[in-house]
Design goal:
Layout (H helix, E strand, L loop, with lengths): L6 E7 L8 E6 L11 E6 L2 E11 L11 E4 L8 H14 L3 H6 L4 H4 L10 E5 L12 H10 L4 E2 H6 L4 H9 L3 E5 L23 H12 L4 E7 L5 H14 L3 E5 L7 H10 L4 E4 L5 H12 L5 E4 L11 E7 L16 H11 L3 E6 L4 H8 L4 E5 L10 E6 L7 H4 L4 H12 L3 E5 L8 E4 L16 E3 L4 E3 L6 E3 L12 E4 L3 H11 L5 E4 L7 H12 L5 E4 L12 E6 L3 H4 L6 H13 L10 E6 L5 H7 L5 H15 L6 E9 L2 H18 L6 E2 L3 E8 L2 E10 L2 H18 L7 E6 L6
Parallel strand pairs: 2-5, 9-14, 9-15, 10-12, 10-13, 11-12, 13-14, 16-26, 17-24, 17-25, 23-24, 25-26
Antiparallel strand pairs: 1-2, 1-4, 3-4, 3-5, 6-7, 6-8, 18-22, 19-20, 20-21, 27-30, 27-31, 28-30, 29-30
Helix pairs in contact: 1-11, 7-8, 18-20
């Protein structure tokens, strides 16, 4: 590629909500398109900003003498060509400013101008390789010593594998292990003919067929691995990853946030000899930056991460795996509101790489894509290791006696089953997607409901903390003793949550270990692993939790799953409501009977005539069969994937400001676009209008005409940025392909 003179005009994207880039002068010895994706420091609005070069230009609309100079921070693009392509696509599709989209590509330290250099990589090693771990009392310390006998391990890897900082520091204090910097000594190479550390189980016929199909294809292909819960999808991933590594290509594995339990990482670390890094919210800013740079400098071959790991530079990318592809956490809910699955397919195509979307409950969009032959589907219809699918029963709560248990969510039939199952030494999982003790508190005298002062949301009772908490903004207050309106002391608690169920079961079964898993008592990956260890070690027989339990956990001795309350999910104005309900009960039910033991799933409901529940317990209908009925409903209602939808959002501390902005936008669309296929809603309040002291309003638009859809959104962005002046603190946003109903 030829070089330009030693100065040139560059187009820079800055971190501002503006649908335009800005020209600067760059003085550099060799200026070429290779600099696209590098960081520059620029003067913008009287402050120093870190921007990204998106174009090398030969002229500008502004006189060269008036252009400001940019300072080059990198000699090589940190945002590689394939990532830049993906981000450009994402910016155009989701109608979000390129400069702010690019911020997602860089760890915080690099966004703020830190040098793109790995300062150190700390690792842990045994002082005496022959140290006898039996001399230690604590199991986790013994396990860490045994792990280190296989060689030094990076500190970040230890965290991913579930060894806490406390465990590490305890061994350092005892002089058994030591920390050292391996940045310059670690061997990042590997023998592509010797990449397996420990062989996995022998694949069954279905698994082997899936591996053969994927490995036999070359170039860009989208495969959907549609496997029932417990069918061994992870083993398929590991085998196709091994094949990819043997071809000297690298691998990206994306997982939902809550799936980042150490057991997930351990399977990768124990299987492969190649360097592996991870990127997720459990890492510090420095650790995330180091992981990014290790991939950037070709020092790792597998990257496992959550949503934003998609934008990490990966040389010679050959395979992307998205586990639990249906999971809503792959959709960013604010700022750059992208869907990682969709952009991962864009990146895979640009790299001519394979991509595998795995799930027991594929999204309706994915199912539609393989039904129309856009993707290739591979089925795993049987559980691995000859395990059988659980039996499912529907319990009509209307026929149950109103016991103390039922008042807290546990009907007498489920209560009896819990006693029978635990008496046999087996374990029970109870699912309720509502944390806290009870839904809210109401005054018995005047009907006053205790509501968050910052949001239009009732405060949830959390008795262990003796607080009322807002589940939107996290506002907290102590549980009151009287009504602030009428001063009456007769306060009633409505509904029940995981905390109340835990309290009841501890009184009912005081001799059993009971573990609760929800966001109130599980704050990070290590706490989750500790809780799960109690179940794996059979120190707990009853596991209560929210949807955190629905994500890929494998409990060999769980033979009963109780779904406490599904009714609230069945009747909702969210067009995805039935889809997510079906996915949730399928995934939760999949925790039962995953080994040689027969499992039972009990679904409690007051709505036992609902078609979805009846189809779910009908053995002639599997997940895909029911999902196809939901797809047909979507087609009839002209909803995704058969139409394009978006929300035009506005919020402000002054409601009129948000309303006036949307009023002008709605008028602009109506005046400029007339189509029988275009639906524009009136201006509506969000379901929860007041959030974080701001009033939220929206317009909903829908059309099956994709070209018209994106033209409207593009013109709306230009109209707002160039012709409208937002009043006060009013904010504007677009949500394309929304996962949430506003």
């Amino acid at each position: 590629m030829g070089t330009l003179p030693n100065f040139s005009i560059i187009e820079v994207a800055v971190n501002r909500h503006m649908f335009q880039n800005f020209d600067y002068i760059l003085e550099y010895e060799y200026i070429s398109n290779d600099l696209i994706g590098t960081r520059v420091q620029v003067s913008f609005a009287n402050s120093k900003e870190i921007g990204v070069i998106v174009k090398i230009k030969t002229n500008s609309d502004i006189a060269v003498t008036k252009l400001k100079k940019a300072k080059l921070l990198d000699t090589k693009a940190l945002i590689t060509t394939d990532v830049m392509h993906t981000i450009n696509f994402g910016s155009a599709y989701y109608h979000y400013p390129l400069g702010q989209c690019l911020q997602v590509c860089l760890p915080k330290l690099l966004r703020t101008g830190s040098e793109a250099k790995i300062s150190q990589i700390m690792a842990l090693e045994l002082v005496d390789p022959n140290f006898d771990s039996s001399l230690l009392k604590k199991d986790n310390q013994k396990a860490l010593v045994e792990t280190l006998k296989q060689g030094a391990v990076k500190v970040n890897e230890l965290k991913d594998r579930g060894f806490s900082t406390y465990c590490k520091n305890a061994l350092i204090k005892k002089g058994i292990v030591r920390l050292f910097d391996i940045k310059d000594t670690f061997n990042y190479s590997f023998d592509k003919n010797n990449i397996i550390k420990n062989k996995g189980p022998i694949l069954n016929t279905e698994q082997q067929a899936a591996v053969n199909i994927i490995n036999s294809q070359s170039g860009f292909n989208v495969f959907v691995l549609n496997g029932v819960t417990g069918s061994g999808k992870t083993e398929v991933y590991l085998n196709i990853i091994a094949h990819t590594l043997a071809s000297n290509k690298r691998v990206l594995v994306l997982v939902p946030e809550i799936s980042l339990a150490p057991q997930t990482f351990n399977r990768f670390y124990q299987r492969f000899k190649v360097p592996i890094v991870s990127m997720h919210s459990g890492l510090s800013d420095k650790e995330r930056c180091d992981a990014f740079l290790e991939m950037y400098y070709d020092k790792a071959y597998i990257l496992i991460g959550t949503r934003s790991a998609l934008f990490t530079p990966i040389k010679n990318l050959g395979l992307i795996v998205i586990d639990e592809e249906h999971d809503g956490s792959f959709k960013q809910s604010d700022g750059f509101r992208y869907h990682a699955r969709n952009l991962a397919i864009v990146r895979a195509k640009y790299n001519n790489a394979k991509i595998v979307l795995g799930s027991a409950t594929p999204s309706l969009e994915t199912i539609n894509n393989y039904l129309t032959n856009k993707y290739s589907v591979i089925y795993l219809k049987h559980r691995a290791a000859n395990a059988t699918l659980p039996k499912v029963e529907l319990v009509d709560l209307k026929t149950q006696i109103l016991t103390d248990g039922l008042k807290t969510g546990i009907g007498n039939q489920l209560e009896d089953l819990i006693g029978q199952i635990t008496a046999k030494g087996d374990q029970v999982v109870l699912f309720l997607n509502r944390r806290g003790y009870s839904k809210n508190i109401v005054c018995h005298n005047c009907g006053y409901i205790f509501t968050c002062k910052h949001c239009d949301s009732p405060l949830t009772v959390h008795k262990t903390q003796h607080k009322l908490i807002c589940h939107i903004c996290d506002y907290q207050q102590y549980i009151p003793t009287s009504c602030p309106k009428c001063h009456n002391k007769d306060l009633l608690e409505n509904g029940f949550g995981t905390e109340q169920i835990e309290e009841f079961l501890k009184l009912r079964y005081p001799d059993l270990g009971i573990v609760r898993i929800d966001r109130d008592n599980i704050q990070n990956k290590n706490e989750l692993e500790k809780a799960l260890e109690l179940v794996h070690n059979k120190k707990a027989h009853i596991l209560i939790g929210t949807q955190m339990l629905a994500k890929g956990h494998d409990f060999a001795d769980v033979t009963l799953v109780g779904i406490i309350d599904i009714d609230s999910n069945l009747y909702t104005d969210d067009y995805r409501g039935l889809e997510t309900s079906l996915q949730l009960i399928t995934q939760v039910a999949g925790r039962a009977g995953r080994s040689h033991k027969q499992g039972l799933v009990t679904i409690q409901s007051h709505e036992t005539t609902h078609w979805l529940l009846n189809d779910f317990v009908n053995y002639n209908k599997n997940y895909e069969t029911i999902a196809m009925q939901l797809l047909e409903q979507r087609r009839e209602q002209c909803l995704p994937p058969f139409a394009n939808i978006a929300y035009i959002l506005a919020n402000s501390t002054v409601r009129d400001y948000a309303f006036e902005l949307l009023e002008q936008i709605e008028h602009f669309i109506i005046i400029n676009y007339q189509s029988d296929d275009l639906f524009i809603s009136p201006i509506c309040s969000d379901k929860i209008e007041k959030r974080f002291n701001r009033l939220h309003l929206h317009i909903f638009i829908k059309t099956a005409n994709k070209t018209l859809f994106h033209e409207i959104l593009s013109k709306v962005c230009i109209f707002v940025s160039s012709q409208l002046k937002l009043k006060g603190d009013c904010r504007f946003a677009l949500e394309v392909d929304p996962y949430n109903i506003y």
